[in-house]
Design brief:
heterodimer; A: Barwin-like endoglucanases; 6-stranded mixed β-sheet; about 15% strand; B: alpha+beta; Eukaryotic RPB6 RNA polymerase subunit; about 20% helix
C-alpha cells in the first residue's frame, strides 16, 4: 500500500475566461440538441466533441467509445457579462472596500498594517468590510465614495444624493467588472485574495463553461422519446436568451429591452448555478418540479458529498422485515429462501472442490426448498466472462467447469453474513451471524440479540450483507461475530441476554421449589442439548423427581461459583440469605443452583451476572451456548404453565377498592387542609422557597404518597400469581408503578415537573372555580386505567402525555446530531501499539488509552480487575 | 486588588511543570515523535503563564485520574495565533 502523503497546501482559485476558453473543445451556439434523425447538432449542446453517451458513437475529441471517453468541456460566449451567484458576497465586499474611481483599497498603508500586521509578521486578520467606514473619501485619489446597496440575489446599486434626495443608481455587471479590473494586485493580498489564481473580475462571467454531456446524459424513455437532463434544459434556456440578446443588441434595440434581456440572462445563469437562492423564484420543469441544477447536485443528504462519496449503495445486500425465532441460536440469522437464492458467494474452483462445485452448478439457480442443496446463478470463466446458469444449460456448463473458474454459489446454512439495523449507533449494530435458510419472507433472529440492535418486531426491517472474500469472512467471524460482541464496551457487561419472556420464564421455573417428573423435566430440557440427567433430587413412591433448580443447573458450567442478589431482592435491612422468603438470595455452588431465583439480574440483557461470569471464566463460546440453552429452557418453562395477561388481572376485591377510596379521600382532605393553612397565611415557607412553592411541593408530596399507597394495596392483593406482578418483580417488563396506575390510581399529571397550572381565567378548565387549588383541579387523576378516567382527568392525562412525546422527539434529534459530531471528530483516532491514542498524522491525543490503558470491554464494570468475582469463585462463599 | 489568584492552587487545576531538555528528548524518543505531534497548549493559558513557561517549552501535567489514579500528560506550549 502506498504510504499516506502529507498535504502541503491547497490552492483555491477562480477560473479565468482565458482558462475556460482553453479547456473548451467547442464553442456552443445552438440551443438544440438532436436533429430529427436523433443525431447531435454540431455546435449544439450535445455536440460530439463534448463526449459521447450513445453506445457505438465515438467522441470527436478523443476518439474513444462512450464507456471510455471522460467527456470534454465546451463554452458559451455570453453577450454581456453576468454575475456568478456564488461570489455575490465577495463582490459586495470588494465594491465596498475599494475606491470607485481608482480601484485602490480605501485605507492608507498604516491602517492596513494595523489590521493585517507588519510585512514580516502577518499574524493579524484579513481586511473586512467593517474595517472601512462607509462613504468615506479615498485616501489615494481623494474621491468621495458612495454607499453600495446589495439586493439578493444579484442586484448591486450605488446610492447617489441628488437635490437632497437619495436615488439608487443600478450597477450593471459590466460596470462592476470594470471596477474589479481596476483593483491593483498588491491591494488584493490583504483582502485574502491571491491575484495569481483569482482576479476579482473573474467572478463576473463573460464566458460560461458547458459541462460535458457525460455529466448530463439524456435518457430515452420507453416510448422512444428523449428526455434531457435538468442541466441541459437550463443550458438551452441560457443559449436561447443569449442569442436573443445578441440579435437585439445588433439591431440596436432600446435600452429598456436590453436591460430586460440582461436581467433574464442573469436569472438563467443564476438558477443554472443554484436553483435555491433567496429572493429568486426557482426555475421549474414543465411539470412544475423545480430543476436540480449544479449546487443542488452537491448539497445536502442526497448530494454528491453525503450521498455519493461518503455513503454509497452496495451490492450483495438485502433488506426485509424481521421476526423472532427463539429456536435459532443467537449466532444464527434466518434468511428467507428467496434471499438466499439471489445472494451469492464466489468460490474459486480448485482440484479439491471441483466435484462439489460442479454439483452446485448442476443444482441450478432455483432451490426448491430449504433442505435442497444450494445452487448457483453464474459461473465465471478465467477470461472474466460470466455464464448464466439456466434450466437448459446446467449440465453443459457444469461439465465445462475446470480449476481457475469461479462459481457464484447461493447462500447456504453456515455462511457468514453481516446483519445490521439502523441507526447504527454503536459497533454492536452490525454483527456477523451464521446463515440458516428458512421458508417465509422475513429475517429471523433470536430475541436475545434484540438489545444490541435495539430491534423489536413491530415492523422493523434489517439489512444483511454478504462478505465476498475469504479475508472479509475471516475478519467477520473473528472480530464481529455475535459471540465476540456479547460484552458491550460501554460498561463492560453483557449486552446480549434474556428479555421479556426469557426473564419471566426463567423466573417461573426457578422460583421457590417445584418438583418435576421425568417427562416434565425432559420436556423442559429437550432443546438444551444436555447429554444426561443428574441424579433425581428425590424419589417418592418409586417415582423419580427433579427439582426446578436442578433443571436449571443442568445448563450451568460445572465450575461456576457465585453469590448475588436477584432483581426480586427487596433490600431488607438484615439479609436472611438462603432463608430469604422471596427466594432472592442466589447461590451457585460448583455449577448447582442451591438457592435463589434466576431473573433479570442473572440472565437479562445489560445485567446478566451469570452470563458475565461465564464469559470471564469459560470464554465467549461457552457463554453463547449458555445464552442459547437459557433462551430455549426459559421459553419451554414459560410454556409449561402458560403466561398471559388480561383485563381481569387488574381487578381487585371490594375491600381493596374501599381502602383505595379511603386513601384518596384522606389525601384530598389533607390537600384541602394544607390549602386552608396557606390561605390563612399560616404556612411556613421552606428555606429558599416562596409560600406558593412550598404549598405546591407539599401537595405533590401528599398526592404522590397517596398514589404509592394505592399501589401497595394493589400489590398486596395481587401476588406473584398475577402476571404483571411477576413481570415487575422478575424485571422482565414494567414496574410496580405501571401496575399501580392500571389497578390503583394514575396519580398526578405534570408539565415540567409541576402540577398542571396553565389555562384561561385563573383555572385549568371551566369545570372548576377560578383560583381553585384542589387536587382534581390541577391534574390529579384518582382513577385507574382499569376504572376509567372522567373527562377532566382524561384531558389532564392528554396534557401530560403530550409532554412526554415532545420530550422524546426532541431528545432523539438532539442526541443524533451530537452523536454525528462526535463521530466526525473521533473517527480517525486509533490506539497505537504503544498504547497511545493517535490521529492518522501520528499526533498524540492521549498518552495512555483512557489514562489507564484498560479496554472497557474487558474491565469489570469499570475496574481493571474483578477482585470480588475471583475471590468468590475460589472460596465459593459470599465475600 | 491585593492578592493575585494563583490558579495552580485551585483544587481543580492539575500540577504543571516545565520539562528539562533531557526529559523532553527522552519523551520524544519513547513515543517516537516530533514536538509537532505533542498535544498543544497556548502560551497565554493561565496555568502555563503562572509556571512561567514560554513557547516551545514542553510541560508535564499530572492529573488525578478516575481510571488510573494518577495520569501524566505532556503538552507543547505554542503561541496563540492572533485572532
Amino acid at each position: 500500500m502506498p504510504s499516506p502523503k502529507r498535504i502541503g497546501q491547497i490552492e483555491f482559485g477562480l477560473l479565468s475566461p482565458k482558462e475556460i476558453r482553453e479547456m473548451s473543445v467547442r464553442k456552443i451556439i445552438w440551443a438544440d440538441t438532436y436533429d430529427d434523425d436523433g443525431f447531435p447538432y454540431p455546435q449544439g449542446l450535445m455536440d460530439l466533441n463534448l463526449g459521447v453517451i450513445d453506445p457505438g458513437l465515438r467522441c470527436k475529441t478523443c476518439d474513444q467509445k462512450a464507456s471510455e471517453c471522460p467527456g470534454h468541456f465546451g463554452h458559451i460566449e455570453l453577450a454581456k457579462p453576468v454575475i456568478h451567484v456564488g461570489y455575490t458576497r465577495l463582490i459586495r465586499k470588494l465594491l465596498r472596500v475599494t475606491c470607485r474611481s481608482c480601484g485602490r483599497v480605501l485605507l492608507s498603508p498604516e491602517e492596513i498594517e494595523k489590521v493585517v500586521g507588519t510585512e514580516d509578521d502577518q499574524t493579524g486578520d484579513l481586511l473586512s468590510e467593517k474595517d472601512v467606514k462607509k462613504e468615506r473619501i479615498c485616501p489615494h485619489c481623494g474621491d468621495q465614495q458612495l454607499k453600495i446597496n446589495f439586493e439578493k440575489p444579484t442586484t448591486f446599486s450605488e446610492v447617489v444624493v441628488e437635490d437632497g434626495k437619495k436615488v439608487e443608481h443600478k450597477l450593471t455587471p459590466a460596470d462592476i467588472r470594470s471596477r474589479m479590473e481596476k483593483i491593483p494586485n498588491e491591494d488584493l493580498t490583504p483582502l485574502g485574495i491571491n491575484p495569481d489564481v483569482a482576479r476579482p473580475e473573474w467572478t463576473i462571467l463573460t464566458v460560461l463553461p458547458v459541462p460535458p454531456v457525460t455529466m448530463r446524459p439524456s435518457i430515452i424513455l420507453e416510448n422512444g422519446q428523449r428526455s434531457e437532463d435538468d442541466l441541459t434544459h437550463k443550458l438551452v434556456d441560457i443559449i436561447r436568451i443569449n442569442q436573443r440578446f445578441k440579435e437585439n443588441q445588433d439591431a440596436g434595440a432600446p435600452q429598456l429591452i436590453i436591460e430586460d434581456l440582461w436581467e433574464l440572462l442573469q436569472y438563467h445563469v443564476t438558477t443554472y448555478m443554484d436553483n435555491e437562492v433567496a429572493g429568486c423564484p426557482p426555475a421549474r420543469h414543465r411539470s412544475g418540479r423545480p430543476l436540480k441544477t449544479l449546487s443542488q447536485r452537491l448539497k445536502g443528504k442526497d448530494g454528491r458529498f453525503r450521498g455519493s462519496l461518503s455513503g454509497k449503495r452496495v451490492n450483495f445486500s438485502s433488506r426485509t422485515v424481521i421476526s423472532p425465532d427463539p429456536n435459532l441460536s443467537v449466532r444464527q440469522v434466518g434468511v428467507p429462501r428467496a434471499v438466499a437464492n439471489e445472494m451469492t458467494i464466489p468460490v474459486r474452483v480448485t482440484i479439491h472442490n471441483i466435484e462439489e462445485l460442479k454439483q452446485i452448478a448442476r443444482n441450478g439457480p432455483n432451490r426448491q426448498d430449504v433442505n435442497s442443496p444450494c445452487g448457483a446463478n453464474y459461473v465465471i470463466r478465467p477470461d472474466a466472462r460470466r455464464l448464466r446458469l439456466a434450466e437448459g444449460n446446467l449440465d453443459t456448463v457444469a461439465d465445462m467447469i475446470e480449476p481457475t473458474w469461479t462459481v457464484e454459489r447461493h447462500l447456504r446454512d453456515g455462511d457468514v453474513v453481516l446483519f445490521n439495523r439502523q441507526p447504527s449507533l454503536h459497533r454492536m449494530s452490525i454483527m456477523a451471524h451464521r446463515v440458516k435458510v428458512m421458508e417465509g419472507k422475513t429475517f429471523r433472529l433470536n430475541p436475545a440479540v434484540c438489545p444490541p440492535y435495539n430491534a423489536d418486531f413491530d415492523g422493523d426491517e434489517m439489512n444483511m450483507h454478504v462478505p465476498q472474500t475469504e479475508e472479509a469472512r475471516a475478519e467477520a467471524t473473528i472480530l464481529i461475530s455475535v459471540q465476540e460482541n456479547i460484552l458491550s464496551p460501554r460498561f463492560g457487561g453483557p449486552i446480549i441476554g434474556g428479555i421479556h419472556d426469557h426473564v419471566s420464564g426463567i423466573f417461573m421455573l426457578t422460583h421457590d421449589t417445584r418438583w418435576f417428573k421425568k417427562e416434565e423435566a425432559l420436556y423442559l430440557l429437550r432443546y438444551s442439548g444436555i447429554e444426561r440427567m443428574p441424579a433425581p433430587g428425590k424419589v417418592e413412591n418409586g417415582v423419580e423427581y427433579w427439582s426446578n433448580k436442578q433443571v436449571f443447573s443442568t445448563i450451568l458450567p460445572v465450575h461456576l461459583n457465585m453469590v448475588f442478589k436477584a432483581s426480586s431482592c427487596a433490600n431488607c435491612d438484615v439479609c436472611k440469605k438462603e432463608l430469604c422468603e422471596r427466594d432472592a438470595y442466589v447461590r451457585i455452588f460448583d455449577g448447582i443452583l442451591e438457592s435463589g431465583t434466576i431473573d433479570k439480574k442473572a440472565i437479562g440483557a445489560f445485567d446478566g451476572q451469570i452470563v458475565n461470569r461465564i464469559i470471564r471464566q469459560e470464554g465467549m463460546s461457552r457463554a453463547t451456548d449458555f445464552i442459547d440453552d437459557m433462551t430455549k429452557l426459559s421459553i419451554r418453562a414459560i410454556m409449561f404453565d402458560g403466561f398471559s395477561f388480561g383485563i381481569d388481572d387488574e381487578d381487585l376485591s371490594k375491600t381493596e377498592y374501599g381502602q383505595i377510596e379511603e386513601i384518596l379521600k384522606n389525601a384530598a382532605l389533607d390537600v384541602d387542609r394544607r390549602i386552608k393553612v396557606y390561605e390563612d397565611g399560616q404556612l411556613e415557607p421552606m428555606p429558599g422557597r416562596t409560600v406558593e412553592e412550598t404549598l405546591e411541593m407539599q401537595i405533590m408530596q401528599v398526592l404522590g404518597k397517596a398514589r404509592d399507597l394505592t399501589g401497595q394495596i394493589a400489590g398486596q392483593h395481587l401476588g406473584l400469581g398475577n402476571s404483571a406482578v411477576l413481570m415487575a418483580v422478575s424485571g422482565a417488563r414494567g414496574s410496580m408503578l405501571n401496575l399501580t396506575q392500571m389497578a390503583g390510581c394514575i396519580g398526578q399529571q405534570s408539565v415540567r415537573g409541576e402540577r398542571i397550572v396553565r389555562g384561561y381565567d385563573d383555572r385549568t378548565l371551566p369545570h372548576f372555580r377560578k383560583g381553585e387549588r384542589g387536587s382534581d383541579a390541577h391534574g390529579f387523576i384518582q382513577h385507574s386505567y382499569k376504572g376509567g378516567l372522567n373527562p377532566t382527568e382524561f384531558f389532564f392525562h392528554a396534557i401530560g402525555g403530550r409532554e412526554g412525546l415532545v420530550d422524546t422527539a426532541v431528545r432523539t434529534s438532539q442526541s443524533g446530531y451530537l452523536q454525528r459530531r462526535l463521530i466526525n471528530a473521533l473517527q480517525d483516532l486509533k490506539v497505537a501499539y504503544d498504547g497511545t491514542v493517535r490521529t492518522t498524522g501520528g499526533r498524540i491525543i492521549q498518552f495512555e488509552y483512557g489514562e489507564d490503558g484498560t479496554d472497557p470491554t474487558r474491565s469489570a464494570f469499570g475496574d481493571p480487575v474483578d477482585v470480588k468475582g475471583i475471590v468468590e469463585s475460589i472460596i465459593k462463599e459470599a465475600v | 486588588m491585593s492578592t493575585k489568584l494563583n490558579v495552580l492552587k485551585h483544587d481543580m487545576v492539575p500540577d504543571h511543570e516545565i520539562m528539562s531538555e533531557e526529559e523532553v528528548s527522552a519523551l520524544l524518543t519513547t513515543y517516537n515523535i516530533t514536538t509537532e505531534q505533542l498535544p498543544k497548549v497556548f502560551h497565554d493559558d493561565p496555568a502555563v503563564k503562572s509556571i512561567g513557561a514560554e513557547a516551545d517549552n514542553v510541560i508535564r501535567i499530572i492529573r488525578v485520574s478516575h481510571t488510573a489514579g494518577r495520569a501524566e500528560s505532556y503538552r507543547l506550549v505554542v503561541k496563540r495565533p492572533k485572532k
